[in-house]
Structure formats: structure tokens, C-alpha cells
Design brief:
782 residues; alpha+beta; Immunoglobulin-like; 4 domains; five-stranded mixed sheet
Length: 782
């Protein structure tokens, strides 16, 4: 009986580990391409730079970040290699060339999914490893509950589904901590396994150090645990020094072995990382620049509050139960004391740093969740008579958080504290989740590839949007995307955000009952140059921003320009004067300006119900205004620069409306036989995706090309504004040359000069009907 039981134990253990691995893997792997986070594109780029340098044998080039994120770039490299192996034929380039081509701030979603898989797999394995270590510290049931809590924790799931350094650092710190606590367990007799666990803990610590610099907290904490344990046992201090030396040596070796840059500089690179960590911790410039418009600056309470909001419901209850039990018993075991001390001191350690995020608390999760498992188990022992009811309640509390937040696990906030509705008033929310839905909505709009959207989180929107993403205050935007975290920080400015809040969004994204993103029609509200330090003269009222009714100044037509002001309670009675002047006047003092004013428009300042002070100017754009850049000034103070262009079709001899590739259209032409000129009237429809060359050929009745002119239009096609009209005049004499007398047809088309590929002409149904247009008129050569 005993023999059979001992034989079945390894089998049960294997089944438990496999089950836990599957439980951890499932929520991390499902819908892996749901959305992109704001930081992942740069980690894909850094991984590509890391792997490219390694392939070249450039060891120093593997220093892509001194956080140092080496485990992150290794996992990213594995994902990139796997992606390349699958797509090699389609990519058509060597691996090194493809890696070098990856941009820094944009990553395609299929590439992101590929680089996420190593993080998912290793995180799932790490949870199994934490369970296995936990078995050596606590009862098997407690250890299993500990593993299940981590497997189904929304925060742990969320960070293990993205390419970054938070998950590797968190799991490696937790594993190193538990391994060292195993090494210092009291034993009836000395065991050589203590040295093995010390060695393992040190190696894991070295990998953690190579993941993220806050992991260096392990070093003093391990020393503290060793000191307290020696003090309590009063055994040989030389043995403890030897053990700590072994731990440090193992950490250093693991750090050096995993980082190619450290192979040639085994002392210099660890020093560089420590030095960079010190500089980052003491640099408070970023913290001072951080905005707190809609949320408070929590100061020393940042991590306690943010951490509490991210704890799962069951873990929160378990910690409360454990704490109540500890208070009642008035005692802590050495293990409990070490786990609690680590969580508290690590939180304090992170509070001292300049940068803060609830993600940075993940290394404390294993310690907190093992304590929570102890608390839940103590209550479970009391409630064993209601075994099935208790098990059902535990299952509900475990499964509900990941199920209700799938696949946006970052939207989880502890319902015991009021959930997202409370969190939105206290902590910053949003890391890119929801922008995938924004991208889907934008792609459903007409001419989506030609759209331009502004977003403060461009790299999180770009994988889901076929158009171009710019800054949220850029000119010539079709849509402006505002994000929850951006609003909470007051970025780009509270005045601009209040202006948008008074408008009706074209689309909004709601997650977990909270609005995460809003899409507003363009153009964007742009900060006024007069509000910048170089131009600010400190006199109220002061222009803060402006918004034109159109993205460009329409030549020959009026345009409305609204100016946002910072003003006293008493508004001036005199109207403000908006002027259109040469762009160079924006950067010149009043005495150095040209004095040329193309147009002007006065308007009074008015205070709206939301407190904004706005002046609304109707500016007439002269019909003879040349195309180009112009400056807007209000009361002689610079607002900003806008482009002027023509958007109305002129009179034509013949309208054509030929659609070239859904990008440009040949609206018509004018043929002047006396002046020997042909004027082609083009219009961006909606806009070109590249620079094209125009060809104008003369063909005979059989369609044979005889002569022609190829050349770019007066303005590169990629620079045409949406819907802009461009006139291209050609000399017909240069076309006719020495042709014999007769009648000829004029054929017009477009092609890419770099490839020679012609732009197709599309029919009414959008299908190609040719690659050129034959003008209806015939040219007679005498």
C-alpha cells in the first residue's frame, strides 16, 4: 500500500504541474493579437537590433537598453526568428536585412503575436516552477492554490501576454526569492541541498538582474535574510559568508553568460547597469513632468493604492484572512515574515524611484500571493464541513476576474475597492487597450488608407489602422483620437481637452464600464506658438491654442479659425485681430516682420459655459494667394503655421473624372491651340500614397505611341492635401515635335518612378479598366 502510494505520488505531481501549466497558458495564449501596448513596438525594434548585432558578431551592439532587458530581447529575438522562418518566402530578404528594416515605433500585429509567444510560454512555465518551489516551503495544497492564484490573476495574465521586461523580471525575482528561502529553511541536520538552492537562487537572481534593474533589490534583501537567520540561529558566520559569496558569484555568472555584451566586458557591463539604475532612480525630472489633471499625485501611497487595485479578489481576501490570523496568533513564521518584509520593502524601494507604474510591482506578486494562499487555506480548513460550497465559491472568485476582463485583462481593477469606476478617479488607466477598436472603426471609414489620425499612443493604434498616425496636435488630421490616460494626465493641455469634451465624438470605446478612447473629426486643436516659452510675453489674455475649420487654408474661400485663450475674469471689450501673414513672420519680432498681411479677421473673446474663452474668426483667403505655408497671428502674437491650397475646380474644356488607383483623379483638361498648351486638372481623391510621374503621350489611330512627355507634377503627389486641386500645364509644341501632319490622340497616365509600375484607372465599380486615359479631343498637326 505504501509502495503504491509512493509510486503514484510522482504521477499526481506531474498531472498537477501539467494542469497548472495548461491553466496558466490558456488565458495568456487566447486572443493574443487583441491589442498592442504603447511600449511593445520599441521592444520589437530593440530585439531586432539585439539579434542583428549578435548575428554580425558585434557584442557591444547587443547593448540596446541599460535597464538592461536582456531576457526581453532574447525572447523577442526568438519570436522574430520564428516569424521569419514562417514568412521567409514572402519576405524575400535575408534575416539580417529584414531585422534592419523593422521600424522603431511601429510593429505589425502578426510580428507582435510572434514575439509574445516566448513570453507566454516562459511565464506559464514560471508559474509551474513557482508552484514546485512553493511545495518545499508550504503544504502541497497551499502551494497548488498559490500557483492557481497566479495562473488566473488578471495582472499576471496581462503582463505575460506582451513583450516587455516586467513579466520576466517579476517571475525571476519570485523564483530567486523562494529558492533562497528554501536554502535557509531550518533543518534537523545540515544538507548539501542548501548549497544547491543557494546556487539556484543566485543564478535566477542574475537572470533577474539582466531583466530589469529593480531586481537588484534582491541583493540587499538576501543579505538581510541571511543576517536575520544567522542572528536567530547563532551558527557559523563564516558559513553564511561563504553562502552569500556563492549566491553573488552565481548571480554574476548568470548575468554575464546571458548577455553577449558582457562576454567581452564582464565587469564593465554589470557596473554600467548598476550605474544606470542609480541615475534612473535619482532622476526626478520625468516624475516632475508627469501630469495629474484628473487623478491625484498619490506620493508615497502610489504603490499601496495601485497594488491594491490590481490584486485579484481572492488574493485580497486571502491576505486579509492571513493578516487576521497573524494578529490573532500574535506570531509570524520565518517564512511569513520574510515574504511580508520583501513585499513591503520592495514597494518602498520602488517608491523611491523617479518612474512609477503598477506594472513594476509584479516582483512582489509571488510573495503576496503565497501569503494569500496561506490565508485562504486557513479559512478553508475551518469551512471543511461545507467542502463543496466552499470549493464552488473559490472557483467563482478565481474565474470571474479573468473571464469578465477577457481579452483586456489590464482593465481589471479590484471590485472590493469599487472596481474601474473608483480606480478612474485615483489611478492612471490605459496602456493601449481599446485602440484596436478605434483602428477597426477608422478602417471602416471611406478611403481609410488615406486617412490621417492623431494619437498620443501612435504605436498602439498603428497595427490596427491602415492610414497614417501622427501626433494628436498635428496639422492636416482627419481624426483626433483621445485616450483615457492622456486625459488623466492633462495632455496636451487641460484647455485643449476641455475643448474636445464640449464636442460630440464620432466614436467612443468603452471597456469595463469606462470610456477608454474617443474619436473626434479633424482638424486637430493645435497649441499656439505664443504659449511656448520662447514666445510667451506673459500678458493676458494669452492665446493657448487654435483650430481651423479645415485642415488647409482654401484659396479663394473663407475659413473659420477658433482661438482658445487664457484670460482674466474680465474679458477685453476690443475684438481680437487674426491675420494671415508670411510664415517667416511667426518667428520674427514685430519690428522684423515683412508687414505683408494677406487677410485679417476681427472677433470678440467670449466665455463659454464650460469656462473656455474662445474667439471665432472668419478669415477670407484671397483668390490670388499662392500655394504654400503661411502664418496665423492673433494681435501680433504667433499662433501657428498652415498650408494653403486650391480645393475648387476651375473651368475646363472637358470633364473626365478619371480615377487613378483610388488616390488621384484627372478631373479634366483645357486645350489651348493658339497658345499651344495643354493644362491637366488633377485632384487628390482622397490623396496619393506615393510620388508619381505623369506621362502624356501622343498615339496614332492604331494606338501606337509616337512621342510623349514624362515628368513630375509641379508639386510631388504625396504632398497634395486631401482633395487639393493641382493644375499641370504642358507645351503641346514639345509633344508634336516633327510629327507628320495628321490627327492624334492624347493619352495620360501615372506611374511610380522607382518601379515603373503604372497606376490603374478604376471604373465605377472600383475594378481596373486600364492604365491610362485617352482624352476625347483630337490633336491636329499641320
Amino acid at each position: 500500500m505504501t509502495s503504491g502510494s509512493s509510486q503514484s505520488r510522482p504521477r499526481r505531481e506531474l498531472l498537477a504541474s501539467l494542469g497548472l501549466f495548461g491553466l496558466a497558458l490558456l488565458p495568456r495564449a487566447l486572443a493574443l493579437g487583441a491589442f498592442a501596448t504603447a511600449d511593445e513596438a520599441k521592444w520589437v525594434y530593440r530585439s531586432a537590433q539585439f539579434l542583428g548585432a549578435l548575428l554580425r558578431g558585434d557584442l557591444a551592439g547587443t547593448v540596446v537598453n541599460l535597464t538592461p532587458a536582456v531576457t526581453t530581447t532574447w525572447m523577442g529575438s526568438l519570436g522574430l526568428v520564428a516569424y521569419y522562418a514562417q514568412q521567409r518566402a514572402a519576405l524575400g530578404v535575408l534575416l539580417a536585412g529584414w531585422l534592419a528594416s523593422l521600424p522603431e515605433f511601429r510593429a505589425e500585429m502578426d510580428v507582435l503575436v510572434a514575439v509574445r509567444w516566448p513570453v507566454v510560454l516562459l511565464s506559464s512555465l514560471a508559474i509551474v516552477a513557482l508552484y514546485q518551489l512553493g511545495r518545499r516551503l508550504v503544504d502541497r495544497r497551499v502551494a497548488l492554490l498559490f500557483g492557481v492564484l497566479l495562473a488566473l490573476d488578471p495582472q499576471a495574465i496581462a503582463l505575460a501576454r506582451v513583450l516587455g521586461h516586467d513579466a520576466p523580471a517579476g517571475w525571476l525575482v519570485g523564483l530567486s526569492l523562494l529558492a533562497f528561502l528554501i536554502a535557509v529553511q531550518p533543518a534537523a541536520r545540515p544538507s548539501p541541498n542548501r548549497w544547491m538552492w543557494t546556487l539556484l537562487s543566485g543564478g535566477l537572481a542574475g537572470l533577474a538582474f539582466a531583466s530589469k534593474s529593480p531586481a537588484f533589490f534582491l541583493a540587499p534583501f538576501v543579505g538581510l535574510v541571511a543576517l536575520v537567520t544567522w542572528w536567530r540561529r547563532r551558527d557559523s558566520w563564516r558559513g553564511w559568508l561563504a553562502r552569500l559569496a556563492l549566491w553573488g558569484l552565481a548571480a554574476w555568472l548568470a548575468f554575464v553568460l546571458i548577455w553577449p555584451a558582457a562576454w567581452s566586458s564582464p565587469i564593465g557591463m554589470p557596473y554600467a547597469v548598476v550605474h544606470n539604475a542609480f541615475l534612473s532612480a535619482t532622476d526626478t525630472e520625468e516624475a516632475r513632468a508627469e501630469g495629474y489633471w484628473q487623478v491625484p499625485d498619490l506620493g508615497v501611497w502610489y504603490y499601496p493604492i495601485n497594488g491594491a487595485f490590481k490584486l485579484s479578489v481572492l488574493a485580497s481576501l486571502g491576505l486579509v484572512l492571513w493578516l487576521v490570523g497573524a494578529v490573532r496568533s500574535r506570531r509570524l513564521t520565518a517564512l511569513e515574515g520574510a515574504l511580508l518584509t520583501f513585499a513591503l520593502l520592495f514597494s518602498l524601494f520602488m517608491t523611491l524611484g523617479g518612474k512609477r507604474s503598477n506594472r513594476y510591482l509584479l516582483p512582489a506578486w509571488p510573495a503576496l500571493y503565497l501569503l494569500a494562499a496561506l490565508g485562504i487555506d486557513s479559512a478553508y480548513s475551518v469551512l471543511r464541513r461545507t467542502h463543496y460550497a466552499t470549493a464552488t465559491l473559490l472557483a467563482i472568485l478565481l474565474l470571474l476576474p479573468p473571464l469578465t476582463t477577457y481579452p483586456y485583462y489590464l482593465t481589471y481593477f479590484n471590485p472590493l475597492l469599487g472596481g474601474a469606476a473608483t480606480a478612474v478617479r485615483l489611478v492612471k488607466i490605459g496602456w493601449g487597450e481599446g485602440l484596436d477598436q478605434v483602428g477597426g472603426w477608422l478602417n471602416a471609414q471611406p478611403d481609410a488608407p488615406a486617412l490621417r489620425a492623431g494619437s498620443a499612443y501612435a504605436s498602439a493604434l498603428a497595427p490596427f489602422f491602415a492610414g497614417k498616425v501622427s501626433q494628436v496636435t498635428a496639422g492636416e488630421l482627419d481624426y483626433v483620437v483621445l485616450y483615457r490616460r492622456q486625459l488623466q494626465e492633462g495632455d496636451p493641455s487641460p484647455g485643449i481637452l476641455r475643448y474636445y469634451e464640449a464636442q460630440s465624438p464620432a466614436y467612443r470605446v468603452q471597456l469595463a464600464g469606462i470610456d477608454y478612447a474617443w474619436v473626434y473629426p479633424g482638424p486637430a486643436v493645435q497649441p499656439a506658438l505664443a504659449s511656448e516659452a520662447a514666445f510667451d510675453i506673459g500678458i493676458l489674455p494669452k492665446p493657448l491654442a487654435f483650430r481651423a475649420g479645415q485642415a488647409e487654408l482654401p484659396i479663394g474661400q473663407p475659413v473659420t479659425v477658433e482661438v482658445l485663450w487664457l484670460a482674466d475674469t474680465q474679458l477685453p471689450t476690443e475684438p481680437s485681430l487674426l491675420t494671415l501673414e508670411p510664415a517667416a513672420d511667426l518667428t520674427q519680432p514685430p519690428e522684423g516682420r515683412s508687414g505683408q498681411v494677406w487677410s485679417e479677421a476681427p472677433a470678440p473673446l467670449e466665455r463659454r459655459s464650460n469656462g473656455l474663452v474662445v474667439s471665432r474668426h472668419r478669415l477670407a483667403i484671397p483668390a490670388d494667394l499662392p500655394r504654400g505655408s503661411y502664418g496665423l497671428l492673433v494681435d501680433g502674437r504667433p499662433l501657428g503655421e498652415m498650408e494653403a491650397g486650391s480645393f475648387s475646380l476651375p473651368p475646363m474644356d472637358q470633364r473626365l473624372d478619371a480615377n487613378f488607383g483610388g488616390q488621384l483623379r484627372l478631373a479634366g483638361y483645357r486645350l489651348d491651340a493658339r497658345a499651344a498648351s495643354l493644362e491637366l486638372i488633377w485632384q487628390a481623391a482622397p490623396r496619393a500614397w506615393a510620388d508619381y510621374t505623369v506621362f502624356v503621350h501622343l498615339v496614332d489611330a492604331a494606338g501606337t505611341r509616337l512621342v510623349g512627355i514624362d515628368g513630375p507634377p509641379p508639386v510631388p503627389t504625396s504632398q497634395w492635401a486631401r482633395g487639393e486641386v493641382i493644375r499641370m500645364e504642358l507645351s503641346t509644341e514639345s509633344l508634336y515635335g516633327s510629327l507628320p501632319a495628321g490627327e492624334y490622340h492624347v493619352v495620360v497616365g501615372l506611374y511610380r518612378p522607382d518601379t515603373g509600375e503604372r497606376v490603374p484607372v478604376l471604373g465605377a465599380d472600383g475594378a481596373p479598366i486600364g492604365d491610362s486615359v485617352s482624352l476625347p479631343a483630337r490633336v491636329d498637326v499641320h
